[in-house]
Design a protein that fits this description.
Layout: H1 8-12, H2 23-28, E1 31-37, E2 40-44, E3 55-59, E4 65-69, H3 75-82, E5 105-110, E6 116-123, E7 127-133, E8 139-140, H4 153-157, E9 164-168, H5 171-178, E10 183-185, E11 206-210, H6 215-228, E12 234-237, H7 247-252, H8 259-272, E13 299-301, E14 305-306, E15 310-315, H9 321-334, E16 353-358, H10 363-373, E17 381-383, E18 387-390, E19 396-399, H11 407-416, E20 420-426, H12 441-458, E21 461-467, H13 485-489, E22 492-498, E23 508-515, E24 524-529, E25 532-535, H14 544-547, H15 553-569, E26 576-577, H16 578-587, H17 592-602, E27 604-609, E28 613-618
Parallel strand pairs: 9-10, 9-11, 11-12, 15-21, 15-22, 16-17, 16-20, 20-21
Antiparallel strand pairs: 1-2, 2-3, 3-4, 5-6, 6-7, 7-8, 13-14, 18-19, 22-23, 23-24, 24-25, 26-28, 27-28
């Protein structure tokens, strides 16, 4: 007879199971035995083809011999292959008079249609075995070819919207909760045995998890909650009252309470529980806005470059971006004035120190001579050339600076300066780090976030130079090399370009690209003359799009119409007060921004009359 179909009494031995075996007997029947601790051993499991010892053997303080296969072999299978009855592993004081082969309970696992798939059999000595129905009405004591299903599946699949499905630990708990009129299920095998194949039965359902009140039970609940969260409508984890190991133990103390009242109580536990959220080491940092002190923006260059923030300077190669940043460095080092003209609240540069990171210009041949011609105070300007590190052998060596790994070194450089006001990075792409993909948003943000934090904590401006890409059809804000995350991280972005009306001249334009913290910013025009940066007195109203020869076609048409209107009413011999001109333009539907751009293109000049009103006269086209 196939042992799988033997009666349980023959498979497990006699009622008494024989005298208790000694630990030495068990160990001599095993192979590869090695001690792992006090009264603990590891050995090859006899119930499967074990190439790596996976059977744990423990002699408990009360005399029990505990066997556990880490590969998942059933306890009874291990005993059978050892030729030992499970009862023989218990001392006489703990052995029951009951026949160990006589089931205490049988739990049917059925498919969606109610057909019996397999059974879980509960036996004395807290043993559980599983069996499947054979072709001739017998039961076969293995699970070969069986597709496991959740317990009480026919009731589960009939649930609809609004029904709450309880998931407990163990069939006895499930039956006790079901007796209250609730939908309930569990999985065979106990804690830690939930299968992903069960998850689809819970799609769109509301789930209440109620595990045992011990560490394995709590871990099991977390496992099931994590598994069901992607498919269930909602998952909540319920807690048992203190002092009860499982829901059955609690319900046993409530025999005098009506089932309907107990049902309402369990539902109350559900509604009082919070929706499940996965455990995470990442916790939110929340700031109440009422606790935030509003601060005014402090300026490196008023209404152009802020302190404590990142500014990008975009432009094609060879247009003077690097020269312009050295001009700014010279102004900071001497506390000079910015070239904005009248009407600026304070156009003085804040006196302080400068840290330069330059990858393209030689200090001795280019940077120092330019700063000399700009009359900079060189004692206040420092260049960060690299970092000293120790290699794996403890030897000191030098590396090129990169933002990915060396922000702490940059922080030390800033704090070593007296009242540092600006860090100039030329160009930004040269200092990202070898493993950073400049076209990947997450990579760029990971590098720029610490840099922006450094600017904020030290209240310094960071000005970084970037080259333009070749996509001339894009808006300027998208023209920086690499990811849009560069311009997203910067508070202000400026463009250095040639004059589109005279691209062959030495005239350069500095126009705003991103300026959400600025107040109606205007551009500036400058030239590089004999090693100096010379700005024009008047600001320009040209946009960065127009500076690159793009801009809105509609805006250009409206501006050109305003130019024609200006030239009709203004001539070299005819002028108007600015207030009168503004009123006339408003009556014609010309917006002030369009009027400013039209004045520039029309060649309108201005002068003061008796120090009172500004009048305009148009040059001949």
């Amino acid at each position: 007879m196939d042992r799988r179909s033997m009666p349980l009494s023959r498979r497990l031995g006699s009622a008494s199971g024989g005298a208790p075996v000694k630990i030495e007997t068990v160990l001599t029947r095993l192979q590869g035995v090695k001690p792992t601790g006090a009264k603990q051993w590891q050995a090859v499991c006899p119930a499967h083809d074990d190439h790596k010892p996976s059977l744990s053997i423990t002699l408990a303080e009360d005399g029990k011999i505990l066997l556990h296969c880490q590969a998942g072999c059933a306890f009874d299978a291990v005993c059978e292959n050892l030729g030992i009855s499970p009862a023989e592993l218990f001392p006489d004081s703990q052995r029951r008079d009951a026949d160990p082969s006589k089931p205490l309970a049988v739990y049917d696992y059925r498919d969606e249609l109610g057909k019996l798939v397999y059974q879980v059999v509960r036996l004395p000595l807290k043993r559980f075995m599983q069996r499947r129905p054979g072709d001739n009405g017998e039961f076969i004591w293995d699970m070969k070819g069986v597709i496991r299903v959740p317990y009480r599946l026919p009731e589960l699949v009939k649930t609809g919207d609004g029904d709450i499905v309880f998931v407990v630990e163990g069939e006895r708990d499930a039956d006790n909760v079901a007796s209250l009129g609730l939908i309930v299920t569990t999985n065979s095998g106990g804690a830690g045995k939930w299968l992903d194949s069960y998850n689809h039965y819970f799609k769109g359902r509301t789930v209440a998890l109620l595990g045992d009140n011990d560490e394995p039970g709590r871990k099991h609940v977390q496992q099931v909650a994590q598994a069901l969260l992607p498919v269930a409508r909602e998952v909540r984890v319920l807690s048992l009252p203190e002092g009860f190991k499982d829901i059955s133990e609690y319900l046993d103390t409530q025999k005098s309470v009506e089932p309907e009242a107990l049902k309402s109580l369990l539902l109350k536990w559900f509604y009082e529980a919070e929706p499940f959220e996965p455990e995470s080491s990442v916790q939110p940092i929340i700031v109440r806005l009422s606790d935030v002190k509003a601060l005014p923006i402090e300026w490196f260059w008023f209404n152009r470059i802020p302190l404590g923030m990142l500014t990008l300077l975009l432009g094609d190669a060879g247009l003077g971006k690097s020269f312009l940043t050295l001009y700014m460095a010279s102004k900071i080092s001497t506390g000079g004035t910015w070239p904005d003209g009248d009407g600026i609240p304070d156009n003085s540069a804040p006196l302080g120190s400068v840290v330069i990171l330059s990858a393209e210009d030689d200090l001795a041949h280019v940077v120092r001579p330019r700063l000399d011609s700009l009359n900079a105070d060189l004692s206040r300007i420092k260049s960060l050339e690299g970092v000293r590190i120790k290699d794996e052998n403890g030897q000191e060596c030098q590396e090129y600076f990169n933002l990915q790994h060396h922000i702490p070194a940059l922080r030390k450089a800033v704090r070593s300066c007296k009242d540092c006001k600006v860090i100039i990075i030329d160009p930004l792409s040269a200092f990202l780090g070898g493993k950073i993909d400049s076209h990947k948003d997450s990579d760029v943000r990971s590098v720029l976030a610490p840099l922006v934090e450094l600017a904020e904590e030290n209240q310094i401006a960071i000005i970084a130079i970037m080259h333009l890409n070749k996509n001339i059809s894009s808006k300027v804000v998208y023209r920086g090399m690499g990811s849009i995350a560069f311009t997203a991280a910067a508070r202000t972005v400026w463009l250095v370009s040639t004059d589109p009306n005279d691209p062959d001249s030495k005239r350069r334009l500095l126009t705003p690209v991103k300026h959400n913290i600025l107040i109606e910013p205007t551009g500036l025009a400058f030239e590089l003359v004999d090693g100096k940066v010379v700005f024009e007195n008047e600001s320009i109203t040209m946009s960065s799009e127009e500076a690159l020869g793009g801009g809105s076609t509609v805006e250009a048409v409206v501006r050109d119409e305003a130019v024609v209107w200006l030239r009709d009413i203004l001539t070299p011999d005819k002028s108007l007060a600015s207030t009168e001109l503004d009123k006339m333009a408003e009556a014609e539907g010309i917006k002030s921004r369009t009027l400013r751009r039209a004045k520039e293109k029309a060649g309108v000049t201005s002068y003061r009359l008796c120090g009172l009103a500004i009048c305009y006269a148009a040059k001949s086209p």
